[in-house]
């Protein structure tokens, strides 16, 4: 997987929120306001920010911290630890295992499938891709190009075909060909559309019907999203058993702060991070990285 | 999420009422609530602060403390200010006298540029224009293919070639001129506003085709960074307007306010779905209500449209108006309503909930009980509830796990509803049936039908009189 330094340098230089804070100055109200502003601007959200600051204030008092630097260090540790409790392992366990990529429109599902495919192929795994987006124009063509690029096999259906049956076919194909893993792309769907959420439930049911076993249902979440990200995660989690999150587009200026609220309220682990449009632009979840990007120091 | 700003402000003003004149800290408390609402709606922090100052000024000017209902007054001021900022000067689209009129689309990855390029082209076509689409997104695999498929469905030509985006744009313009197209819409690859190389690239594309209109396509669920993204694109390209997408979701859409504030150019269009038809001129008042969390009636209606099959709805409406609506129809309607999602959410989407009505209080279980009662009826019973005598009611009550009283109550209420609907229907020039000659009219159905009903039974013969 790619080294992240160059991508994130871009954003770090321009958006240093704390750079103007004097590192060893005394603590005053301005500091708490600055921290609040920084977290809000990172899309952490009003409620989550308030929670974080309450805990931070209590702990700083308890530890008798008196300098800006020490409090910022504590904040960093606090944020990291709220993300560190997760098990970020991508589970297998079927013959084949099936990983389904879900999410709203435009978040980077297809590209993420390509990235994971690339990773697995580099690990010498035999995998099959399922073009489960049968709705969007040229969606299977898009995945087909990626499949060619990665050297993976692809199962696709006709336009408007039942996505469940395309994915099912992929699992049976994988079984027949002794491939251990099926990566299933799905159409983007707004969580507000109950018929599409029902379709997703069916996709998962059918994917488990044959020889395949769904071991990961990954919510692809765009780091650019604001507070609606929490609602997305909640709604998808109500319909299917989300096992993890892939946080994409973290190479942009957005910080993806909504993940704290998601972690706190739903406990869904972030397993992978997307940092670009290329198939190599994928890194395992790294709390340190996320927190540094949010706090920018 | 559905905590209406009205409630929160109402609480604050309630506490302050006795004190008469509002102090500065009182105003600040109110403004803090407004700001929180905006932040929860993804309005950028700096934009929200600026907005807050403006609102404070206007509130003081309008002497809020003297108002009869200060909470409502504040909401009104905020709403009006939002509508003003979001609306303001509409986009005055004029066409170049040297065709084609060139339109350039720009934005981050995944916002909906390609889909909206086609939607926009279709819109121009509906205005009597002759558009051509240029597929200059050579970055995303099969992006041009996507454009071609969508454009084919609406019969609009696409030009693209495998070269670099700038060349494609230039050659596309030449193609447009030589084929006599009067509008050119150039789709481009999504790009990060912090990617210097790609930002320079789109600048070069722009310099090449010299757009009359450059639109930033922005996703309604974008968070705090919307302001920086919009600013960067505006600096690079000088935007003429924006297209706001994915409004069919439930994000509050504060990003639009941030973008509008920093760019100062109109939000020209709104995209409300994945299909090419889901495109309309932007309505600032709808978004203002949405940002304030005041409910989004449009979304509500759309949810209803999604859940209720149009043919079914028409059929049900016809039956209701002709008086044929029976319990089977009622059951169907309840089930369609269920498809819209949890009742609490639906109620929460309704604007102007009366004070004290809390979506959390909505009792979904009552609907479940009604459903159970009706499904325990035979089809004949649902169609002709007048046959439901004591023993049937007892069976229905047992089968649904409810009580005879509840069953009777349902039947009585349904009868009342039908009676009300009957009053709503204008008498039309029906031919009077021979058998109705000389009857005393509908006031005395018992007499007309000659039925003797036991005294302790409910009079359901009304149902019978509606049958044609």
Strand portion of chain B, in percent? 5-15%
> What is the count of DSSP helices of chain B, taking H or I runs of 4+ residues?
21
What is the H/E string of chain B? HHHHEHEHEHEHEHEHEEHHHHHHHHHHH
Range of strand content of chain A: 5-15%
Backbone shape of chain A: elongated
| H and E string of chain A | HHHHEHEHEHEHEHEHEEH
How many domains of chain A, as an integer? 2
Structural class of chain B: alpha/beta
What does this structure look like?
Helix content of chain A is 48%, strand content 15%. Chain A is of the alpha/beta class and 297 residues long. Chain A folds into two domains: 21-84, SRP54, nucleotide-binding domain (Four Helix Bundle (Hemerythrin (Met), subunit A)), CATH 1.20.120; 97-295, P-loop containing nucleotide triphosphate hydrolases (Rossmann fold, 3-Layer(aba) Sandwich). An eight-stranded mixed sheet of chain A has the order 3-2-4-1-5-6-7-8, sandwiched between helices. In chain A, helix 9 runs parallel beside helix 10. Residues 12-17 of chain A have low confidence and may be disordered. Chain B has 468 residues and is an alpha/beta fold. Chain B has three domains: 5-86, SRP54, nucleotide-binding domain (Four Helix Bundle (Hemerythrin (Met), subunit A)), CATH 1.20.120.140; 101-294, Rossmann fold, CATH 3.40.50.300; 306-425 and 447-465, Orthogonal Bundle (434 Repressor (Amino-terminal Domain)). In chain B, 53% of the residues lie in helices and 9% in strands. Chain B is flat and about 85 Å long. In chain B, 40% of the residues are buried. The interface between A and B is large, with 50 and 53 residues.
């Amino acid at each position: 997987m790619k080294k992240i330094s160059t991508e994130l340098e871009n954003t770090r230089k321009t958006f240093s929120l704390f750079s103007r804070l004097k590192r060893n100055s005394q603590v005053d109200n301005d500091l708490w306001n600055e921290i609040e502003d920084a977290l809000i601007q990172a899309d952490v959200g009003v409620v989550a920010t308030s929670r974080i600051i309450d805990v931070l204030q209590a702990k700083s008092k308890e530890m008798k911290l008196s300098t800006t630097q020490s409090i910022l260090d504590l904040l960093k540790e606090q944020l990291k630890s709220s993300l560190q409790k997760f098990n970020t392992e991508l589970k297998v366990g079927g013959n084949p295992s099936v990983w389904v990529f879900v999410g709203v429109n435009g978040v980077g599902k297809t590209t993420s499938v390509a990235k994971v495919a690339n990773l697995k192929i580099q690990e010498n795994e035999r995998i099959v891709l399922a073009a489960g987006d049968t709705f969007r124009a040229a969606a299977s063509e898009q995945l087909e190009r990626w499949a060619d690029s990665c050297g993976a096999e692809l199962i696709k259906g006709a336009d408007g075909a039942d996505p469940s049956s395309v994915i099912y076919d992929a699992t049976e194909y994988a079984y027949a060909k002794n491939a251990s893993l099926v990566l299933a792309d799905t159409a983007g769907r707004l969580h507000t559309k109950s018929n599409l959420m029902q379709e997703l439930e069916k996709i998962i049911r059918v994917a488990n019907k044959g020889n395949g076993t769904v071991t990961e249902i990954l919510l692809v979440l765009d780091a650019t999203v604001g507070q609606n990200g929490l609602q997305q995660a909640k709604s998808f989690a109500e319909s299917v058993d989300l096992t993890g999150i892939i946080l994409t587009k973290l190479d942009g200026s957005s910080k993806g702060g909504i993940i704290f609220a998601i972690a706190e309220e739903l406990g869904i682990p972030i397993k992978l991070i997307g940092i670009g449009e290329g198939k190599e632009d994928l890194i395992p979840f790294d709390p340190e990285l996320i927190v540094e990007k949010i706090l920018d120091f | 999420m559905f905590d209406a700003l009205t409630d929160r402000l109402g609480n604050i003003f309630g506490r302050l009422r006795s004190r008469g004149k509002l102090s500065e800290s009182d105003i600040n408390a109110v403004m803090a609530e407004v700001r929180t609402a905006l932040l929860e709606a993804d309005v950028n922090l700096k934009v929200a602060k600026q907005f807050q100052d403006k609102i404070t000024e206007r509130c003081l000017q309008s002497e809020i403390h003297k108002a009869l209902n200060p909470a409502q007054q504040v909401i009104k001021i905020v709403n009006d200010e939002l509508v003003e900022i979001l609306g303001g000067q509409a986009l005055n689209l004029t066409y170049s006298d040297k065709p084609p009129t060139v339109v350039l689309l720009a934005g981050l990855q995944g916002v909906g540029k390609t889909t909206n390029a086609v939607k926009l082209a279709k819109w121009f076509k509906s205005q009597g224009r002759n558009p051509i689409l240029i597929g200059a997104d050579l970055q995303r695999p099969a992006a041009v293919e996507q454009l071609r498929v969508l454009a084919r469905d609406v019969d609009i030509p696409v030009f693209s070639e495998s070269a670099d985006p700038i060349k494609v744009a230039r050659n596309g313009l030449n193609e447009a001129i030589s084929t006599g197209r009067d509008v050119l819409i150039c789709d481009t690859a999504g790009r990060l506003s912090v990617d210097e190389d790609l930002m320079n690239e789109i600048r070069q594309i722009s310099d090449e085709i010299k757009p009359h209109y450059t639109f930033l396509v922005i996703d309604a669920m974008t968070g705090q960074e919307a302001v920086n993204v919009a600013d960067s694109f505006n600096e690079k390209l000088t935007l003429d307007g924006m297209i706001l997408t994915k409004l069919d979701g439930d994000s509050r859409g504060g990003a639009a306010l941030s973008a509008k504030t920093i760019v100062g150019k109109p939000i020209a269009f709104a995209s409300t779905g994945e299909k090419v038809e889901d495109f309309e001129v932007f309505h600032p008042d709808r978004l203002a209500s949405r940002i304030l969390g005041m409910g989004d009636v449009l979304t509500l209606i759309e949810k209803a449209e999604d859940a209720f099959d149009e043919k079914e709805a028409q059929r049900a409406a016809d039956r209701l108006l002709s008086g044929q609506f029976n319990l089977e129809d009622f059951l169907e309607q309840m089930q369609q309503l269920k498809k819209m999602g949890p009742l609490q959410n639906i109620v929460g989407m309704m604007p102007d909930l009366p004070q004290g009505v809390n979506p959390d209080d909505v009792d979904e279980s009552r609907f479940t009980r009604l459903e159970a009662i009706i499904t325990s009826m035979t089809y004949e019973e649902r169609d002709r509830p007048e046959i439901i005598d004591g023993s049937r009611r007892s069976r229905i009550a047992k089968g649904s796990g409810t009580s005879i009283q509840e069953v009777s109550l349902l039947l009585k209420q349904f009868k009342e509803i039908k009676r009300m609907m009957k009053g709503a229907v204008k008498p039309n020039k029906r031919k009077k049936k021979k058998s109705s000659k000389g009857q005393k009219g509908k006031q005395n159905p018992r007499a007309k039908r000659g039925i003797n009903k036991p005294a302790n039974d409910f009079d359901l013969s009304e149902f019978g009189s509606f049958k044609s």
